[in-house]
Amino acid sequence: LMLTALAACGGSGKDDSKTLKVATSPDFAPMAFVDTSKQGQDQYVGFDIMLAQYIADEMGKELVIMPMSFEACTTAVSMGTVDMAISGFSWREDREQNFNLSDFYYPGDNESDQVVITLKENEGRFAAAADFKGVKVGAQTASLQESLCQEQLPDCELVTIGDLGTGLLQLKNGDFEAMAVAKGQADVFMSNDPAVALSGFQFEVDEKYTANVIVLKKGADSLTEEVNGILKKAYDANVYGGWYEEAKELAMSATANEVSYDDEGNAPAGSESSSEAE
Questions:
Q1: Residues 234, 238, 239, 241: is their CA dihedral positive or negative?
Q2: What is the bridge-based pairing of β-strands 44-45 and 33-35?
Q3: Of 64, 154, 198, 219, which is most buried with the most CB atoms under 10 A?
Q4: 2 pLDDT exceeds 80?
């Protein structure tokens, strides 16, 4: 399944001991997305890419970003075709059971604030949980937002989506009336599209979900320990805030694009980045 993604990203012909292969889903601004003014590995940008580069630099390795769907990122870790996945992952019990998870890292308000967006004409219509009774709400499969909808909007009709870019199109097409997203993502959507607005509802987020984790293969204890040491160094250096502000600014620029790759690492036909991936 992941061999195509490996070849597409140029990781197959390099010495594995000198590279750090990181899976990410670049459809999640400001965490990971595409700068259409650049090509190859340089096109992948965002907070998670900055973090991946920092880790690679600290390890003395060359970073190889391997773009794929959000769900495929964890599959690639399990199969060992990547060293780790950095893609806005929140802590979840099932992830704790199936993978090694790093210590927390802190990308601004992207995890602490979880909201529901809707179309401008519905702004303020869904201000309380009771307002979602019978309402179709979109959320990315296997995401924190999906769990929050199940827990806090039990009377809604949950519609799972594969990627956020497609989800936004589905919202605008009327496939569902609202969509659960991280606040950072909502800010990007609203900045780029005046038809999108906040619903008026905000989830209560348990403290354990207010940061992100890196996903590594179960049993990769020495690598996990090394990564945790690097995360502590980044935290102590107080770099997260600057990275997040830089990523948000870039996410709202004219060249920013959220590209939804498939499980094999292929960008959709016609996307501005489809021919640029290494």
A1: positive
A2: antiparallel
A3: 64
A4: no
Q: What strands, in cross-sheet order, belong to the sheet with 44-45?
A: 44-45, 33-35, 256-257
**Reduced 3-state DSSP string for 150-199:** HHHCCCCEEEEECCHHHHHHHHHHCCCCEEEEEHHHHHHHHHHCCCEEEE
At 216, which helix (H) or strand (E)? strand 213-217
Q: How many helices (H) and strands (E) in the chain?
A: 9, 13
What length does the chain have? 278
Least confident among 4-8, 88-92, 144-148, 153-157: 4-8
More confident residue, 179 or 164: 179
Whole-angstrom CA distances from 34 to 30, 48, 62, 114, 160 are 10, 12, 19, 23, 24
Residues pairing with 137 in the sheet: 158, 178
Which ranges of 60-139 does DSSP label H, i.e. alpha helix? 70-79, 93-98
